[in-house]
Specification:
Blueprint: H1 8-21, E1 26-30, H2 35-46, H3 54-59, H4 66-69, E2 75-82, H5 91-95, E3 102-103, H6 112-131, E4 136-139, H7 147-154, E5 158-159, E6 165-166, E7 174-181, H8 201-205, E8 211-213, E9 216-217, H9 223-229, H10 236-242, E10 245-247, H11 251-254, H12 281-285, H13 289-296, H14 305-318, H15 324-331, H16 339-355
Parallel strand pairs: 3-10
Antiparallel strand pairs: 1-2, 2-7, 4-7, 5-6, 8-9
Pathway: tRNA modification; tRNA-queuosine biosynthesis
Domain 4Fe-4S ferredoxin-type: 183-216
Keywords: 4Fe-4S, Cobalamin, Cobalt, Cytoplasm, Iron, Iron-sulfur, Metal-binding, Oxidoreductase, Queuosine biosynthesis, tRNA processing
Length: 356
């Protein structure tokens, strides 16, 4: 068995080779210094752009100081896993059909947290089997981690004007995960940041003008935040702009020219489930809470709960043509036990009345 202290370069090579063998799309290594990104984070929080995501404020600089989160951390192994599902319905066509619901392409299959965390655990196991025990912890969007900043610093890509990580070879349809570790690994070089140039396609495409400046997103206006993170009432000012987007939003990625280089995922767990790539809004609206729980078990959508799911669909139905089926579906929940659902159904019925 090799020793870690004597072979850091060989270990780094082993880590990347093993990551590739485990099906990870890219793997690179960086240190823990995130001073510039910490300043950006604190300014973003001071502006209140995190909305009701109180945990962002509560965790503070633990997010930008990895050793504060996991003492002893000196290196971050950052990985990418492509997720765009092959054979899924054309995204633009779904968005253009108001009778269908649009679900962000990352959420069409199995919950990525489980898939990627399991892969990172296997990677750590391979390292320990080859080099001995070491300190580590795997993260997949589940703790105060600046995953995009770490991935950028490791050279996996650069943070684009829409605040997502971009790769000139893989676009942006991918998940990120990290192994915080005490391994003394050599670090990789970051890429030049300014690949976006003068392009502003993502800024212009945002339905709710959430990208308030290049590299600066006001989450309170973002459809992903509104449909996933926000509990309770969705502000009326954003409802029309939401269109038929019922879980997340991909508009900024759909227009990004670098996504012509993206590749479909090879991970079967990310294949489309429950026909969520082009679902009928009225069919989804009929789901009971038990239907939601059984069909969304193992999906990232599960965590928003049935109430928010129906709330989102009610808005989409309010933005759809006022057909007999749409009106009947909405009226079926006009006396729903949930006050939140009733409020959004009432709004939606008012919208359909305006189009009759």
């Amino acid at each position: 068995m090799a020793t870690i202290t004597e072979a850091p370069a060989e270990l780094a090579s082993f880590v990347k080779k093993s990551a590739a063998e485990l099906g990870l799309s890219h793997c690179a290594i960086t240190d823990t210094q995130l001073d510039t990104h910490e300043t950006h984070l604190l300014n973003w929080l001071d502006a209140g752009f995190h909305g009701e995501m109180d945990y962002m404020q509560r965790h503070g600089t633990r997010r930008s100081r990895p050793a504060d989160l996991l003492p002893g951390t000196i290196r971050i192994i950052s990985v990418r896993l492509d997720y765009y599902p092959p054979d899924s319905a054309d995204a633009e066509s779904v968005l253009a059909d108001p009778s269908l619901g649009y679900v962000s392409r990352y959420a069409l299959g199995r919950d990525y947290h489980k898939v990627l965390r399991n892969r990172l655990q296997k990677l750590a196991q391979l390292i320990s089997e080859q080099y001995g025990a070491f300190g580590y912890r795997a993260f997949v969007d589940s703790a105060p981690v600046l995953e995009k900043a770490l991935a950028e610093k490791a050279g996996l890509g650069w943070i684009g004007k829409h605040s997502n990580l971009l790769s000139s070879k893989a676009g942006s349809w991918f998940f990120l995960g990290e192994l915080y570790t005490d391994l003394p690994l050599p670090i990789d070089e970051p890429l030049p940041r300014s690949h976006c140039g003068s392009c502003s396609a993502c800024i212009q495409a945002c339905p709710t003008d959430a990208i308030v400046a290049p590299y600066r997103v006001d989450a309170r206006r973002c459809i992903s935040y509104l449909t996933i993170e926000l509990k309770g009432t969705i502000p009326i000012e954003f409802r029309k702009a939401m269109g038929n987007r019922i879980y997340g939003c991909d508009d900024c990625q759909l227009v990004c020219p670098f996504n012509k280089f993206s590749k479909d995922t090879l991970e079967e767990d990310f294949n489309v489930r429950n026909q969520l790539d082009s679902p009928s809004l009225t069919a989804l609206f009929r789901w009971s809470e038990q239907d939601f729980k059984s069909r969304m078990a193992g999906s990232p959508i599960y965590r928003i709960g049935h109430e928010s799911w129906i709330r989102n669909i009610a808005i989409a139905l309010g933005n759809a043509p006022a057909t007999t089926d749409v009106i009947a579906a909405l009226e079926s929940r006009s006396n729903d036990p949930s006050e939140i659902i009733r409020e959004h159904v009432t709004w939606a019925l008012q919208q359909t009345a305006l189009t009759l």
